[in-house]
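Side project, low priority. Logging it here so it doesn't get lost.
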Amino acid sequence: MEKIEYLPTVDEQGNVTGKATRKDCHTKRLLHPVVHLHVIDEQGNILLQKRSASKLIQSGKWDTAVGGHVDYGEAIEDALRREASEELGLERFEARRIESYVWDCPAERELVNSHIAVAPAGFEPRVEAGEADEVRYWSRAEIDEAIDEDLFTPNFIYEYINFLKPALKDE
């Protein structure tokens, strides 16, 4: 028997208003929280994952290193750590919140809780089968040069331009 996954539904400030199945959140476009973690190396390069070719949304595009749903009853910080562990094998990190915003597109409506962390020395990311086909560090110059080439998810481009680049200027 398949386990039904419940997600919190939220208002635009992140206050929980109820719960719904993952399927209902997507088919009915209910606002639900997700976490993103931008992982940076000591030189300021940005770790990205190439979404699996089997993904229904944005398959084969480069995206934020870590991204996933917050489970019903789960704290944002706990979801961030769970997803980082599952997707990259990243266990030890100090995350800093960048921004929360509503991502509203035809495929989904999410309250994105975006964070940044510096990868610990010696960290070797792993690829989670079914989630990503590849992970690698990109320099900001590489991203800037390729940003108009349809290689990245629209969501990553939005975060990179509006939140990530400004946050990295302070590093």
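Brief comment: Strands lie at 6-10, 16-21, 32-40, 46-51, 62-64, 66-69, 96-105, 108-118, 132-138.
Revisit when time allows.
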